[in-house]
Specification:
Blueprint (H helix, E strand, L loop, with lengths): L4 E6 L4 E7 L2 H16 L9 E8 L3 H19 L1 E11 L2 E10 L2 H4 L7 E2 L5 E4 L5 E8 L1
Antiparallel strand pairs: 1-2, 2-8, 3-5, 4-5, 6-8, 7-8
């Protein structure tokens, strides 16, 4: 993961997640961390097990949506939370490793469940300083 950062932003009923980084992939990783932080404090997660996620899509916004959706799928199917992400570009998409562990309700204290990444506020862009931003609203 690069030198990026993440933040939440207000949305009427749900939560906006936003990631920033020097590369598109770093912004995607930071946004994934923001999504994790909606559920649990990422500092409570021990990144000991990895899961590979591959997404294929040429459009940046749709690739980001597939990335978060794939991550949510893995969280639900494996009953895991993730705190570290390594996202690499591949031809026609991305390949990522997400590190985390099984949910321990007593230790992780999950606040809410993120049901889905949405198309609301979906944006992937690069500013004039070269910083990438990836954002969308997640349904909680």
């Amino acid at each position: 993961m690069g030198n990026g950062y993440w933040e939440h932003y207000s949305h009427r009923a749900d939560m906006g997640v936003r990631g920033f980084g020097p590369t598109r992939e770093d912004a995607f990783a930071q946004a994934a961390l923001a999504m994790t932080a909606v559920v649990v404090d990422p500092k409570r997660i021990t990144p000991k097990d990895s899961v590979e996620i591959v997404c294929e899509e040429d459009d940046d916004e749709m690739l980001f949506w597939y990335w978060l959706s794939g991550l949510l799928f893995e969280m639900g199917m494996r009953n895991m939370v993730f705190a570290r992400f390594e996202v690499q570009p591949i031809e026609g998409g991305l390949r990522a490793l997400a590190w985390g562990e099984s949910v321990d309700t007593a230790r992780h204290e999950p606040a809410v469940e993120v049901k889905a990444a949405t198309f609301a506020d979906l944006e992937v862009s690069r500013n004039k300083k070269g910083v990438w931003m990836a954002q969308c609203v997640v349904d909680v």
